[in-house]
Write a structure and sequence with these properties.
single chain, 179 residues, mainly alpha, elongated
Length: 179
């Protein structure tokens, strides 16, 4: 990666990859991209929880009860406090020690809006068999398919982090004489 590849103030990052071998600079950039993504996920979780609860409430009964939205706001803060540090810890772990991916961790946040909706007595939505099999606890079809589903501003940081991780991974394997 080039020396000018760094997180921008808006949270996005520039991931131009050079043809040179990987090294400490690439690892440092990967860590910086990880922080940008972790910060963005943690910041986005509260609003995502509220938006999901509100969307399902409106679809179910035509309006969003302010008391339920208050519960959603509290659940969103709890989601950020619980899932945010888990995502950060994963992203900052050495890539060879990452046994899952950050989106899989983010998807566990579905428990927070689900609990609010269940407590409000909202019935589960009809989902396809694949969704039910993959995400059995996602009664309301809220599991994000991508970082952009959590918040559109996370699309680029997610891609940049993934590209940087792939670059570091390939550079390590090449330095070991593997492809």
């Amino acid at each position: 990666m080039t020396d000018d590849a760094k997180p921008s103030p808006g949270g996005a990052a520039d991931a131009r990859v050079d043809a040179g071998p990987g090294g400490a600079d690439d690892e440092a950039r990967l860590a910086a991209y990880a922080v940008v993504l972790a910060d963005g996920v943690e910041a986005a979780l509260p609003a995502w929880v509220v938006a999901g609860v509100e969307r399902i409430l409106v679809a179910w009964c035509g309006h969003a009860d302010p008391a339920v939205l208050d519960q959603a706001r509290a659940a969103g803060i709890e989601a950020a406090a619980t899932i945010g540090p888990e995502v950060r810890a994963l992203l900052l772990r050495d890539i060879d020690d990452q046994r899952t991916n950050p989106l899989a961790v983010v998807r566990r946040a579905v428990a927070f809006p689900t609990a609010v909706l269940r407590a409000a007595g909202v019935p589960a939505v009809v989902r396809d068999a694949d969704a039910e099999a993959r995400f059995p606890d996602d009664d309301y079809d809220l599991v994000p398919a991508s970082f952009a589903d959590l918040d559109p501003s996370l699309h680029e940081p997610g891609l940049v982090w993934g590209a940087a991780k792939a670059h570091v991974h390939l550079a390590r394997r090449r330095s070991e004489g593997r492809r």
